[in-house]
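User: Could you go from structure to sequence for me? I need the amino acid at each position, not a summary. Structure tokens:
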């Protein structure tokens, strides 16, 4: 019997003994188990990772949005399908490579959808990187270049403690300016960035060059 990621199983459910013991302990503690957050478990305790191909097939191309000449990668079909969304979160969790994560940092705005869910699965805190003027307390700021002009992102000064292990998550890597700015803010706070994960990467835009030597994982890569 497969156990869905993050599911609760009551005592006596027909699962393997190691999985049952772990899951029942979680029920007692009234919390989810980060260790079982990503792969599914079968009766032989073998991890089953979902295929990215099903996610790729669900991504919808929208021509001339948000302006003429742009082909927009629409992720809403993934978000609206419970199984696909769960698979996306599973694959992003797996990019952490089993490392302990203290904080999952999400980038305004669609990155929040994925980062918050990943944080819940991994038993980590969630930290938002927001556009200028959206955070209420003391912040650090970083400007980055756009095609015309610049934009600014902010992070609370106390969002991450020095040495905390951080996974940075966003929905899309395009030119890399926003993620690069977020990484610089995390470096200023002394975070240990263990990885940067995107659901989609538009490789032809060369955004990885903005991310330095950080480990970068993209679940889906589009080359044109």
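Assistant: Here is the amino acid at each position, in order:
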């Amino acid at each position: 019997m497969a156990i869905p990621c993050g599911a609760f199983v009551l005592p006596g459910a027909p699962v393997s003994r190691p999985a049952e013991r772990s899951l029942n302990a979680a029920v007692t503690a009234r919390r989810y188990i980060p260790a079982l957050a990503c792969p599914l478990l079968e009766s032989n305790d073998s991890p089953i990772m979902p295929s990215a191909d099903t996610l790729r097939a669900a991504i919808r191309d929208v021509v001339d949005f948000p302006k003429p000449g742009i082909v927009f990668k629409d992720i809403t079909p993934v978000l609206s399908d419970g199984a696909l969304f769960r698979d996306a979160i599973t694959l992003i969790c797996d990019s952490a490579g089993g490392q302990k994560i203290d904080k999952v940092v999400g980038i305004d705005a669609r990155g929040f959808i994925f980062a918050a869910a990943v944080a819940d699965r991994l038993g980590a805190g969630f930290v938002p990187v927001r556009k200028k003027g959206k955070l209420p307390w003391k912040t650090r700021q970083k400007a980055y270049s756009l095609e015309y002009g610049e934009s600014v992102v902010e992070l609370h000064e106390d969002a991450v403690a020095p040495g905390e292990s951080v996974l940075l998550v966003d929905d899309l890597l395009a030119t890399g300016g926003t993620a690069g700015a977020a990484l610089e803010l995390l470096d200023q706070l002394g975070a240990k960035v263990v990885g940067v994960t995107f659901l989609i990467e538009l490789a032809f835009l060369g955004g990885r060059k903005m991310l330095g030597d950080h480990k970068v994982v993209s679940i889906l890569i589009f080359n044109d």
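One structural detail worth keeping in mind: The helical segments are 17-29, 52-58, 76-79, 82-94, 110-122, 177-188.
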